[in-house]
Design brief:
Layout (H helix, E strand, L loop, with lengths): L2 E3 L4 H9 L6 E2 L14 H17 L6 E11 L2 E3 L5 H11 L3 E11 L5 E12 L4 H10 L19 E5 L2 H5 L3 H10 L6
Parallel strand pairs: 1-2, 1-3
Antiparallel strand pairs: 3-4, 3-5, 5-6, 6-7
C-alpha cells in the first residue's frame, strides 16, 4: 500500500516520521489557496486540505494520499502565511497578549478514491509581546512562510503562555487524527 504525502512542508514529513510513518513519495499539490468570499477559517482549512488531496490523488491512482492545511485564525480573520517582515510584524502584534485558534485540517484519500476528513482545533495564547521581543523574533527569520508569522516548534515557543489541543497540529499535522485515518484505511502504523 503506497502512501503519498501531498505537501511540500518539511514539518509534515518530519512529524509523520516521528510516529514511524514514512511516505513512499512526496508530491506537493499546487492549487489556488485564495479564500472564497465570506469563507470562515474552519471551512477554508478543510476545503484547501481536500482540494490538495484530490489534485494529488489524480496523479497516484490506487495510492493513499494524505494532505493537510493549517490556518491561524484571530476571531473570524484568517492570518496569512507571512511572506514579508512587515506582514509577520502585523501578525505578531495582532496575536500579542490574546488567544487565537490554529485549525489543522487533513484529508486522506484511500485506494478506492474515498476521502476522509478530520479537523483539529487548537487554542494558542501568546504573552503580551513588547517591541524588542517582536524585533528579536523577526530577526530569527523563523516566521518566513509560517501561518500567522510564527513557528511553535522554534523560538516562538518561549513567547507562548499556553496551548490547548495538539502540539503537532499547531506545527502542521495532527498526528492523532492522522494515525486514526491511516489505520482506518488499512495502513500499517504500528
Amino acid at each position: 500500500m503506497r502512501l503519498i504525502l501531498a505537501s511540500a512542508s518539511p514539518r509534515r514529513l518530519a512529524l509523520l516520521e516521528q510516529v514511524g510513518v514514512v511516505p513512499d513519495a512526496v508530491d506537493p499539490a499546487d492549487i489556488d489557496e485564495t479564500m472564497q468570499k465570506g469563507e470562515l477559517p474552519a471551512p477554508y482549512a478543510a476545503r484547501v486540505a481536500a482540494e490538495k488531496g484530490a489534485r494529488v490523488a489524480t496523479r497516484h491512482p490506487g495510492a493513499l494520499v494524505l494532505s493537510g492545511d493549517t490556518v491561524v485564525a484571530a476571531g473570524r480573520r484568517i492570518l496569512p502565511k507571512a511572506e514579508s517582515e512587515a506582514q509577520a510584524r502585523t501578525c505578531l502584534a495582532l496575536l500579542s497578549g490574546r488567544r487565537h485558534r490554529v485549525l489543522s485540517a487533513i484529508t486522506l484519500i484511500d485506494a478506492e478514491g474515498k476521502a476522509r476528513h478530520r479537523l483539529s482545533t487548537n487554542i494558542v495564547i501568546f504573552k503580551r509581546l513588547d517591541r524588542a521581543e517582536i524585533d528579536a523574533y523577526l530577526a530569527s527569520g523563523e516566521w518566513r512562510g509560517k501561518a500567522g508569522g510564527y513557528a511553535i516548534q522554534g523560538r516562538a515557543a518561549g513567547l507562548i503562555r499556553s496551548i490547548q489541543g495538539s502540539h503537532s497540529a499547531i506545527m502542521g499535522l495532527p498526528l492523532y487524527e492522522t494515525r486514526v485515518l491511516l489505520r482506518a484505511a488499512g495502513y500499517p502504523c504500528d
